[in-house]
Write a sequence for this structure.
C-alpha cells in the first residue's frame, strides 16, 4: 500500500475517532458546568434574563422521516428543567416558567438558517404574552427598536403540551385571557364527518373589555405554526359576558390568515352586543340564537366574510338568511337577505327601546329598568355612535306576523340601508288585515341629534280582520285609511315625537262599534268614551274622519267627526307628546228628536299612562238646572231642556273626506297644562 494512502487512512481514522470521542464526551459529560455560560449567552441574545435552574442533559436519538445515510446520523435531544424566561420590563413577572422541556433538533436545517424542531414537549408551563398601552410587547426579542427582520426561520414539526398555561394580555384592546392546553393521550377516532382527529383540548378564561370570558374545546394539531401547515381543525365554545360563540371547522392559521370555513354558532341577550366582539353593527334585539356556515375569502382590496344559510330564533320568532360582510374603504359593507316565517311583533319591541319580548335577557331587563314608570313613550337613547362603523344594505321579509290578543299583521317587507350614518327603511311595508301599511323612514345620525322623517299610508285595512277576536259579535266592519307625514329631531322615540311636525289624516268607512268591541280590541280610551255615549250596545258607524296637525310635538285636531245613524260626535283639543298629556273634548249631537236625554260633552285629560275620561259638569248642570226651574212653572215646560231636537246635519264619508281635504288653518294652542 502506498505510503500516502496509509497517511490519508490514518488521518481519516483519527478524525472519525475524534468525532466519536466528542460525541461520547458531549453525551457523558455533565452539562451542569456549561449552564452558567449557556444562561449568559441566551440572556444576551434575548435581551432579557434567561436561566435553566434545573437539570440540563443531552442525548442522541434516531431521527424520524429520514432516508438514506441521514437516517443513521442521530439528532440531539436536549432536556431541561425549571426554565425561566424574563420580561424586557423590570417591573413585570417572568414571561415564562417551565418545569420541564424536551427538544429534538434537526441539525441538517441549520445551514439553511432554519431552526427546525422535530419534537417539542412542554410540561407544567406558564407563558405570558403581553402588549402594553405604548404598543410595546414582550414577544419581540432583542432590542424592540430594531426593525430589521431576522435571517433565521423557526419551525415546529410536532408539539406536545401537558398542563401548559398561555396568558395573552393586550392593554390596547382591554384583553386578558389565559388558556390551558393539554395534548390528548389518545386521539379521537376518525369518522366520515370528522376525518381528522383532535390532538389538544383547551380551556380559556379571562376578560375582554371588562366582560368575563370563559370557554373550552378541542383542536387538531398546532402545526399551523409551520409555514406549510395544513388547516387547523377546531371545535369549541366561548362565552363573552352574555354572548356565546361556538365554532366547528378548520382554521388555516392561528392568525386567521387565508381561507376560513367553519360552522358558527351565535347566541346572546341582544345582537347589538356583537359589535364589541365582531365589529358588526346590529340592532338591539330580544335574546337570539343562530347557526350557519361562516366562510372567509381573502381579497386584494379586503376580506369577505359570508355567514351562509344560517337559521335561528330571535325571541320566539324564527330567523334565517345569508349575510355578507365585505372589508372595504371608507367603511365595511354588510349586505344580505333575511327571512322570518313567523314573526312575533313583541320581539320587535327592543328595536325602539320597549321591553315587549316574552323571552327575558339582560338587555330586556335593562330596557325595562331604564323606562320611567310614568312614561309611555320609549325614552331609551338611540345610540348612533356605531352607525359610522359600517354601511349596510339588507332586505328582510316576514311571511307572517302575530301580535298579542291574536291580532295578525299579515306580513312585513323592509329594505334597510345604512350609508354614512344615515339609516333608512325604504320601504317598511306591512300587510295588515287585508290591506297595506306602507312606510318610509329616514334617520340621519350624522349629528348628535337625530333628524327623522316618516311617511305612512294605510289603505283598505279591514276592521273585521284587524280585530278578529271581536268577530264573534257578528258585527259588520268597514275599512281604515290613513296618511301620516312627520319630521322631527331627538335622541329617542320620546324626544323625536316631542319635537315632531307634520300632519295625520284618518278615515274609517261604514262599520259597527260598541263598548265591548273596543274593549276586546284593547282601545281603552275609546272604549270608555263609547260606553259613556252609547252604553254597551252595537252602534252603526257610518263614517269617521280626522285631520290633525302636529307642531313641535303638539298634535291638534282640525277635524275629527264620528257619525252614526242618529248622532254626530266631534272631538276637539290637543295631545301633547312633549309632556305626554291629553286635553280633548268630545261633543255629541243627536241627529233626530230625543226625549229625556242628558247626553253631555265629555273630556279626556290626564297622561298617556293614566288618562281620565269624564262628563263635563257645566253643560250637564245647566240642563238639569233649567229643567228644575221650568218644572216649577209648568210640569210640561220641564220636558223642554231634556228634548234634543236634533240637527239637520247629515254626513257621509264623502262629505267628511272633503272636509278633511279642505285646507284649514292650524287651531290655536290651548294653555299649557300643569
Amino acid at each position: 500500500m502506498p505510503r500516502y494512502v496509509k497517511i490519508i487512512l490514518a488521518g481519516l481514522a483519527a478524525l472519525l475517532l475524534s468525532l466519536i470521542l466528542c460525541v461520547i464526551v458531549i453525551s457523558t459529560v455533565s452539562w451542569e458546568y456549561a449552564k452558567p455560560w449557556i444562561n449568559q449567552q441566551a440572556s444576551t441574545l434575548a435581551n432579557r434574563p434567561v436561566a435553566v435552574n434545573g437539570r440540563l442533559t443531552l442525548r442522541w436519538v434516531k431521527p424520524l422521516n429520514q432516508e438514506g445515510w441521514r437516517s443513521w446520523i442521530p439528532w440531539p435531544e436536549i432536556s431541561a428543567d425549571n426554565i425561566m424566561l424574563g420580561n424586557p420590563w423590570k417591573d413585570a413577572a417572568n414571561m415564562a416558567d417551565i418545569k420541564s422541556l424536551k427538544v429534538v433538533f434537526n441539525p441538517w436545517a441549520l445551514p439553511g438558517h432554519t431552526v427546525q424542531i422535530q419534537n417539542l414537549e412542554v410540561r407544567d408551563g406558564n407563558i405570558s404574552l403581553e402588549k402594553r398601552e405604548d404598543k410595546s410587547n414582550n414577544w419581540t426579542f432583542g432590542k424592540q427598536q430594531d426593525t430589521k427582520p431576522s435571517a433565521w426561520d423557526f419551525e415546529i414539526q410536532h408539539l406536545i403540551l401537558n398542563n401548559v398555561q398561555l396568558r395573552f394580555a393586550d392593554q390596547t384592546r382591554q384583553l386578558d385571557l389565559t388558556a390551558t392546553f393539554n395534548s390528548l393521550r389518545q386521539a379521537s377516532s376518525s369518522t366520515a364527518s370528522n376525518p381528522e382527529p383532535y390532538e389538544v383540548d383547551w380551556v380559556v378564561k379571562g376578560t375582554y373589555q371588562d366582560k368575563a370570558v370563559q370557554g373550552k374545546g378541542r383542536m387538531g394539531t398546532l402545526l399551523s405554526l409551520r409555514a406549510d401547515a395544513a388547516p387547523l381543525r377546531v371545535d369549541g365554545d366561548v362565552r363573552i359576558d352574555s354572548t356565546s360563540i361556538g365554532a366547528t371547522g378548520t382554521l388555516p392559521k392561528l392568525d386567521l390568515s387565508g381561507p376560513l370555513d367553519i360552522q358558527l354558532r351565535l347566541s346572546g341577550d341582544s345582537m347589538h352586543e356583537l359589535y364589541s366582539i365582531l365589529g358588526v353593527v346590529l340592532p338591539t334585539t330580544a335574546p337570539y340564537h343562530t347557526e350557519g356556515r361562516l366562510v372567509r375569502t381573502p381579497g386584494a382590496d379586503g376580506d369577505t366574510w359570508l355567514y351562509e344559510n344560517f337559521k335561528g330564533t330571535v325571541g320566539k320568532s324564527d330567523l334565517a338568511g345569508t349575510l355578507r360582510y365585505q372589508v372595504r374603504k371608507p367603511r365595511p359593507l354588510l349586505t344580505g337577505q333575511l327571512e322570518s316565517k313567523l314573526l312575533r311583533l313583541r320581539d320587535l319591541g327592543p328595536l325602539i327601546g320597549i321591553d315587549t319580548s316574552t323571552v327575558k335577557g339582560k338587555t330586556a331587563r335593562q330596557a325595562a329598568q331604564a323606562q320611567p314608570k310614568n312614561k309611555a313613550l320609549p325614552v331609551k337613547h338611540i345610540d348612533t355612535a356605531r352607525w359610522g362603523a359600517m354601511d349596510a344594505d339588507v332586505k328582510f321579509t316576514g311571511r307572517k306576523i302575530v301580535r298579542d290578543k291574536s291580532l295578525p299583521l299579515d306580513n312585513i317587507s323592509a329594505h334597510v340601508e345604512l350609508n354614512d350614518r344615515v339609516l333608512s327603511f325604504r320601504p317598511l311595508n306591512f300587510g295588515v288585515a287585508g290591506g297595506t301599511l306602507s312606510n318610509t323612514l329616514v334617520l340621519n345620525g350624522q349629528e348628535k341629534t337625530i333628524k327623522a322623517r316618516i311617511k305612512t299610508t294605510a289603505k283598505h285595512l279591514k276592521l273585521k280582520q284587524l280585530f278578529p277576536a271581536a268577530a264573534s259579535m257578528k258585527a259588520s266592519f268597514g275599512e281604515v285609511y290613513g296618511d301620516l307625514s312627520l319630521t322631527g329631531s331627538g335622541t329617542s322615540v320620546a324626544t323625536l315625537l316631542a319635537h315632531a311636525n307634520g300632519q295625520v289624516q284618518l278615515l274609517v268607512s261604514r262599520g259597527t262599534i260598541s263598548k265591548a268591541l273596543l274593549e276586546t280590541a284593547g282601545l281603552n280610551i275609546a272604549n270608555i268614551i263609547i260606553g259613556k255615549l252609547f252604553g254597551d250596545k252595537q252602534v252603526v258607524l257610518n263614517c269617521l274622519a280626522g285631520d290633525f296637525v302636529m307642531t313641535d310635538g303638539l298634535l291638534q285636531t282640525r277635524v275629527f267627526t264620528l257619525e252614526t245613524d242618529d248622532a254626530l260626535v266631534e272631538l276637539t283639543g290637543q295631545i301633547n307628546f312633549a309632556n305626554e298629556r291629553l286635553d280633548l273634548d268630545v261633543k255629541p249631537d243627536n241627529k233626530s228628536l230625543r226625549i229625556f236625554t242628558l247626553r253631555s260633552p265629555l273630556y279626556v285629560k290626564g297622561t298617556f299612562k293614566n288618562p281620565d275620561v269624564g262628563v263635563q259638569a257645566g253643560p250637564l248642570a245647566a240642563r238639569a238646572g233649567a229643567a228644575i226651574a221650568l218644572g216649577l212653572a209648568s210640569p210640561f215646560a220641564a220636558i223642554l231642556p231634556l228634548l234634543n231636537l236634533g240637527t239637520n246635519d247629515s254626513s257621509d264619508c264623502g262629505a267628511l273626506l272633503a272636509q278633511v281635504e279642505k285646507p284649514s288653518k292650524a287651531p290655536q294652542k290651548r294653555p299649557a297644562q300643569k
In short: The first strand starts at residue 50 and ends at 52. The first helix runs from residue 3 to 28. The chain is about 15% helix and 45% strand. Confidence is low (pLDDT under 50) at residues 186-195, 593-598, 622-651.
